[in-house]
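Posting for a labmate who doesn't have an account.
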Amino acid sequence: MADKYSQSGYARQVALVENNKRMRGANMADSKSAARASVLQSFLPALDEMDVIGAKYEGNAFAGTLQSGLTMEFQNNLQELGVSEFGVESGDDVVMGRVVAVEEQFSEEFGKGTVITSLKRGLEIQGNIVRPAECVASLGSEAAPAAEEEEEAAAAEEEEAAAE
């Protein structure tokens, strides 16, 4: 009890209060980012539709100007809200929640569960994923599943022979 009212006890209590304030501030900021990410997900179909319209009317000068202006304004507003793009490179791991494998292919060059080709960049707000990146993922070598099946068949035969 005497330590509670000493100079070192007072300094310890001040430090505890300051740490508590910092942690609450960090939690509040993270909650705001998560809420923004959740709300922005409802606007992503509009952004995707703008990309489709831009590709459809690529040759039309008026439509191109109108579409590029709307898209730029939308992207500027996203940046003001703290949204940033992120991408994946060939050879990166496919991280669930951050990257979505739209297609999977066998690859001798890339191991199982890695990115072969990046298709679409993702969006995030301070680590909170708004839209995951899209990619073509590797299933590994075609020879690997065949070798695994042969090993399993050999193990099953050994078990049968041992059982007899």
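Reply:
Got it, the structure tokens are right above this. The beta strands are 83-86, 99-105, 115-120, 122-125, 128-131, 133-138.
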